[in-house]
Amino acid sequence: MPRIQFTTPDGASGALELDAERMSVGRADDNQLVIADDSVSSHHGEVAFDGSSWTLTDLGSTNGTKIGGSRVDTVNLTSGGAFQLGNVNCVFIGDSEEESYSGQTSTMSTASSGYGSLPYNGRLRTGFGPKVKQKNPGGALQTLLGVVGLLACAAAVYFAKQMGA
Question: What is the 3-state secondary structure of the chain?
């Protein structure tokens, strides 16, 4: 059975069995193929079999799909072909169990029809909030007022003790 072997930057590795004609790959648990690494998008891409060959299509992922360091939209998966999902190194292993990784690079192509030919609309993407945490512009003023308040309380206690003595 064909599979994708992967190794994450922290050294974890695994294999994803390709047991259907169309499968989603990503970090989220609702994908058929899950790679739990922060550099892999929640719904990174889709692996499809057209009857004769396997293809991986990037679905507009944040860190991209790469071959030899170059970002690509579509990867024709050939046995032993290496590619990256985010920062995760992957190798496609074909149907034959005897085939082993040969280090050759997969070829890239752009789809002229079908799902991969549709442009990606990033505005439809949803996430867990803003990518950058917004700064609180009033934080410094609040801290300064807190320090001044504490100093005023300390001064009041000091003078109260001086008057009582």
Answer: CCEEEEECCCCCEEEEECCCCEEEEECCCCCCEECCCCCCCCCCEEEEECCCCEEEEECCCCCCEEECCEEECEEEECCCCEEEECCEEEEEECCCCCCCCCCCECEECCCCCCHHHCCCCHHHCCCCCCCCCCCCCCHHHHHHHHHHHHHHHHHHHHHHHHHHC
Token digits for 143? 């801290």
Instruction: In whole angstroms, give the CA distance from residue 76 to residue 105.
Output: 10
CB atoms within 10 A of CB 62: 13
Compute the C-alpha angle 59/41/36, nearest 5°. 135
pLDDT tens digits in sequence order for the chain, 165 residues long: 899 999 999 888 899 999 999 999 999 999 999 999 999 999 999 999 998 899 999 999 999 999 988 999 999 999 889 999 999 999 999 876 433 444 444 444 444 444 444 555 555 555 555 555 566 666 778 888 999 999 999 999 999 999 876
DSSP β-bridge partners for residue 54 = 49, 77
- Residue 91 contacts residue 113 (beta carbons within 8 Å): no
Q: Residue 10 is which amino acid?
A: D
Task: Give me the count of residues in the chain.
Answer: 165
